Amino acid sequence: MNPDDLNKASGGFLSEIVNDSIYLKDLGLLPDTVGDIYTLFNWDDATSFVEGGWAKVGITCVTSYECCNEYYYQGQKISRDDALEIAKRACIKGPQIGPKA
């Protein structure tokens, strides 16, 4: 499964944390991933790890054990799909076109 495939994967609860960790690692935002078993028994550590990866691209991820995660960007609630796309765009490498900031 590649990062774009994860965008289509059904998420929520435990699998959302695991899939987010895989996506963020593939983008270079996390050094490793978390698995189902680890996340189940180490919820606080696993979710903190994934939330830290999202924070690197300015996204606040509010993890939830009982429902789907919530994602926020620039103070606005966004969908998981939007969060994945924002992270992907933030991590694109290559020459920048246009004036330097």
Structure in words:
This protein is mostly helical and 101 residues long. It is built from 5 helices and 3 strands, in the order ααααβββα. Strands 1-2-3 form a 3-stranded antiparallel beta sheet. α2 crosses α4 (43-55). It starts with a helix and ends in an 11-residue tail after the last helix. The model is unreliable at 1-11 (pLDDT under 50).
Order of the strands making up the biggest sheet = 1-2-3
Query: What's the count of strands?
Result: 3
Give the strand content.
5-15%
Q: Could you give the distance between the termini?
A: 36 Å
What are the secondary-structure elements, in order, as H or E? Answer: HHHHEEEH
Q: What is the mean predicted local confidence, pLDDT?
A: 84
Estimate percent helicity.
Answer: 40-55%
Number of helices: 5
Task: List unreliable stretches of 5+ residues.
Answer: 1-11
The rough form would be described as globular
**Helical/strand content category:** mainly alpha
What is the CA-atom radius of gyration, in angstroms? 14 Å
Report the major sheet: 3 strands, antiparallel
